[in-house]
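Entries read chain and fold; for instance:
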Amino acid sequence: MIASADDTTPGDAGSDALRDAARLLSDHGPAGWRTATLSVDLVARGHGGEGVRYRTTDGTGVYVPEMDHGAIASPMIELFGRLAEGTTFRQVAVHLTVDADGEFDAVARFGLRGSSVGNSYTVVFRKDLPPETLDPEPVVLDPTYAGDPDRAIALLLDQARGDLPPGAAEDQIAAAEAKLGYRLPPDLRAMYALADGGGTIDGWNRYPLTELIGMYEITSAPAESSWPGVWNRVILDADPADTIRRASGHPGWIPIADDSGGNFLVVDLAPARHGRPGQVINVGVDWSTRPGYVAESVTAVLAGRPRPVVSRSDLRLERRGGDIDLEPLRQLPDLQELRLYSDTVNTAELARLRRLRSLSMTAKADLAPLRELPVEHLHVNPESDLTPLAGHPTLRSLGLTQGTTPSDLTPLRTVANLHGLSLADADVADLAVLTDLPSLVYLELSFDQWRQLRPLLDPTGLHAATLSGNPTHRQAIEWRSLLDADPTETAHRTRSARGRL
């Protein structure tokens, strides 16, 4: 347990508050109880977490109505107030144990919150996120616009049947373009000169220029995200291939309409190699990991020639079974994301998947076929030999499942772009290898793994760290203290008390 100097001072408010909490549990102990535990997350107006648990000598749980979640609401609010008095902290995690003989041990940590995904805890050292892709800047093969201004105006007039607002003046359009940093395609420019928004385009609500500028803040930047949610994110390629940049947002994406549900119809002024400036695409909440191609221009959309935007089943695939036959994958050359939940798997067929970006396999497998594939994320059995991954040019994140054989991470030393690792479920032969990974900025380990690694690791190189593997509150508090910059930070954020009531 980590304790600050203040915690050991007689009469310290934090220690006294924790002692009183232990006394509360002891005073309400049921007949035959042996141990009691309080494990909670406290804020000024309430609490969460497991709450209070009583157990007998043989480990049997005992329910005590007077100490259920609702009944302890008032004492928990009081406990938070006493612990946080004189600080600016708004949340504290508490873990306390007391036995029937009156021996108690308590620790509290300010600012420690569990993740909303599973029983895990994440600390963010730097908010910088890795780039969504490492794709080079594309050279567009056809940089000309496909739209036709005159035809776009004629189509808009025909579809609106006179129900259009006045057009935007030239100086208004120019001012909007100055804010965007891009000149609008000729057909879109002509449409705004005719009518500044109003009506629909392909069933989507069309923006006036003022709303376009406002929504541009959303489409011009990567989708809002944070650690740990992005460590293994992969943006898939569009269909047709290489027409749209692999991104969730870009300054060259100009929104012109939306579906009122977080999705946008966008004019793309920064296409990929086989795209054209002015093409229309779908982006937003339903397209955050794969933007969708709609048509070559706004004119084409108005003409009713958009490409059907559907979720292609042959881009993502999941299979379950004892022994999965991968030969049918020969019919899916465009597959980009594959998940295989099986006991055995023959990976030879994977070599044909030249667009595969993300792969998860629960069975021990030969990873050699992955050498020449553009895989960016892998989740594999730790009994798989990682040697074929040495020097892999595109691999960026790796997770290991549970296994009975310690995994040798040595081949990862030469994976230059590997920025994220999740190892909490695996047995790792030598954690010291992690200190040699040049691009590692995110690490997810179990409590025991973090304790082994901490003396070897300088956490200042990490952007975020996660404690996983079903840790207890006490383990989470100790883990967070392990990552503190110095003892002063630990003393500032931690309160503890132990002894006999």
Observations:
- The chain has three domains: 6-117, 149-302, 316-483.
